[in-house]
Amino acid sequence: MSVKGTHAMRILRKATFAAPLALLAGCVSIGSEPPEQLFTLTPKASIAAGVSSQGEVGDALAVQVPAVPQSLNVNRIPVTKSDSELAYLADAFWVEKPAQLFRNVVAKTIRSRGGQMVLDGGELAYAARTQLSGQLVAMGYDATSSQVVIVYDAILAMPDGQIKTRRFEHRVDNVEPVATQVGAALNDAANTIAEEVADWVG
What we know:
Helix content: 25-40%
Mean pLDDT: 83
Distance between the termini: 91 Å
Low-confidence stretches: 6-31
Number of strands: 7
Number of helices: 3
Order of helices and strands: HEEEHEEEEH
């Protein structure tokens, strides 16, 4: 084979090898840059190391993840710009869905009171005769009033079949539309509501 023929074969082999890589690159999407920081909700109530509880599953209180509107079914912080306009706060991403984070704060706050066994997940939670559920109506930033707002419609189902409901709402004033400020204010609001829910549940 001539030198030109050998050179042509090398080019063909390189092209044959590169073609699948080019097709693969076209099919794989790396996505956008990951956020520089993620936000979470941290319960202010603490549980001492070694504290435990025991009892019948049926006697426990189950704290369920609240239902949410579609605007909260994402890892973003919604911003209300008007009665008909909604956006999401730039550079603000939750580490988990808001409803999950909120449930965790409520459950841990109730558990810290030490009054009863609290279940906050898993199949056993559905066997508890006392169920705390509801809807997380709002958890975001109101640009029209520069406030952070959380609204939680709680439903407490008692062992005797009685149902109790209550709306919990907390606002934090004078919050700038900056991710760190809004995240901190939402954490304060969530803890305030969790304390109120714990008092209500008893």
